[in-house]
Every structure is written in structure tokens, then in C-alpha cells.
Amino acid sequence: MSRISPSPHLPRFLPSTQPSLPLLSHQHLVPLFLHCRWRTSAPAKEPEANEKRSVPMTNWWQRAVGQRLNSAGVASFASVVAREPHLALPHIAVPDIRWIDWADLERLGFRGVVFDKDNTLTSPYSLSLWPSLSHSLNLCRSAFPGKIAIFSNSTGLRQYDPDGSEARALEESIGGIHVIRHEIKKPAGTAEDIEKYFGCSASLLVMVGDRHFTDVVYGNRHGFLTILTEPLNLSEEPFIVKQLNPLNSVIYLTDVLTYLKWE
After folding, report:
1. Cβ–Cβ < 8 Å for 231, 95
2. The domain containing residue 66 runs over which residues?
3. How many other C-beta atoms are found inside a 10 Å radius of the C-beta of residue 259?
4. Residue 71 lies inside a defined structural domain of this protein
């Protein structure tokens, strides 16, 4: 059985030898700066197979530009860096979803999982699941039957998918996982649509995504347990995201030093 393994450079806070512990508030379960990894024997990421489905070409240009110019994300980035850098720090970080023990999360009391799409489950602009993630996603389905959804800044966002046709195509392609339709890009907006779908507070849900300043900030603001994955396909990363990546290390260091100062 896998365990949560904190970085050796930071104090141990997790009761990692007791997976059957009752649910704890994840604000107390791990400090926000703590970069954890789930130990498994998962292999290194494999090259992606040929994609079978992708977004319509008529939407590709608008989608590409829109993802690079997320005005809410830019505004949030400035605010987070200046005043709340801890919001960009995940509770747990993993190479990809194969490193997550879904059964352990369910035993801890979490009631559902919300995934980002692009570079978390699929290559950007694709509607096909990244091939090597299929088994892990099936394990997630087994641990959380009927309690998995996708909340994306592309598919399901009414700006790009007004009639929901792309969301339906993705649901069919990856085995019926629901795509939540919404109006506002992460990290802006509320968690109301997600909580309505799951029928519970966001504090009982897990948010999984590959971006610090959208998925993680959104999840932390609304009380999710946040799990950061590495992007599946770096060659498809938007230019602005590539420029922001070096700042992640600065934010980690700043928050760790602040914590050590108060300790």
C-alpha cells in the first residue's frame, strides 16, 4: 500500500503510517508549503500514442489564444505573488495521477475527485485520455463510483463550448466521466457548480490539476484538497505558462522561509 512521503528536507506532519485515520481538515493535514509525493512503483511517463480525437479545427485558434490570455489568471497571478503566495502551493504534488492512491483518499473521508483536463488527463486540445493513465483512472472510478468530474478552462467552458458538444464528446471518449459546464475560468469564480454536482462541500473533494496559478489557487481558495501533477506534454504548454514556471520555486522558498521564521 502506498504512503504519503514528505520531502526529507521538511518536518514530517502526516500520520502516514495510519491510512485508516478519520477525516482531518486538510488545512491541518499538511501545511500548504509541504511538497509531498505518493510512493508507488509507477514507471516513468510514456510517450503519447497517436491521438484519436481532438477539438474541432474551427475552435482551435480561439482556444489556443484564449488559454494563453486568461485575464482572470493573470490578475490572480499578480495578487497571489504579491499577497498570498501560499495559495499557489498544493497540498500534494506528484508526477502524474498514477502516483495517487485513490483508495487511501476515500478512506480518509474524501467524497469525490475533480480533474482538470488539459495536461492532466489529456494532451492540450485533445479529447482522448493520455494512454498510460487509463488504469489509474479506473482505480479512481472504483474508489469514487459516480463521484468524478472534469472542471476545465477549455472543454465545458461556455465561452468555447456553448452547446456542450465538446463536453459530450469528451464524456463519451473517456468513459462517461461528467464534464461540469461553467461560465468563468479558473481561478476566478466560485465552487457552486462543483458543490451542486457532488452534493457536498468542496472541503470533502479533491482537486487535481497541473497548474499552480489556476487549478491549485482555485482549489485552495475554495477548500479542496489540492494535488498538483506535472504537465503531460510540455511542448504544448502556452508561452505565458512556460514563463511563469520558474516562479514556482521562488514561491516555495518564500513560504518555507516564512514558516521556519514563525517556528
Report:
1. no
2. 57-262
3. 16
4. yes
DSSP letters spanning 5-18? EE-TTS---S-TT-
Q: What is the pLDDT of residues 168-188, one digit of tens each?
A: 999 999 988 999 999 999 999
User: The domain spanning residue 101 has which CATH number?
Assistant: 3.40.50.1000
Helix H or strand E encompassing 208: strand 205-209
Alpha helices by DSSP H, listed for 89-230, are: 102-107, 134-143, 165-173, 192-198, 217-222
| 36 within some domain | no
Q: Considering the domain boundaries, does residue 16 fall inside one? A: no
Which set of grid coordinates corresponds to residue 198? 457532488
Name the pTM for this structure.
0.72
Residue 3 lies in a domain: no
Span 62-121, pLDDT tens digits: 544 445 455 565 566 667 766 788 888 999 999 999 999 999 999 999 999 999 999 999
What the block records as the C-alpha cell of 173 is 471518449
Count structural domains, the chain.
1
Amino acid letter, 163 = D
